[in-house]
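WARN no homologs supplied; continuing
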Amino acid sequence: MVHVNSEIYVVIFQKKIQEVFSVVQKGVLRDVQQTLERKKLATARDNMGRCPLHIAVLTENNDVVEYIAKSFPATVKCKDHVSHLVIIIITR
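OK structure emitted
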């Protein structure tokens, strides 16, 4: 029974991660604030190794970038699969 519950938790968490990335890409700050509720979600990765802050930077959502960076400082040090730090992407 414990195994089934943990599988359900994983599926729910994966859906939540997908929702976070979708909301960040859309760039509506209020939606990001409501969806991105904890560090575990802020440091989650997509298939390219990017965290939500990477996505906010790449889509030039400055309000979202500032919110994520200030609320979840650990995201600033996140690297993608080719070792790009968010700060490197910002300075390009």
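The longest helix spans residues 2-26.
OK
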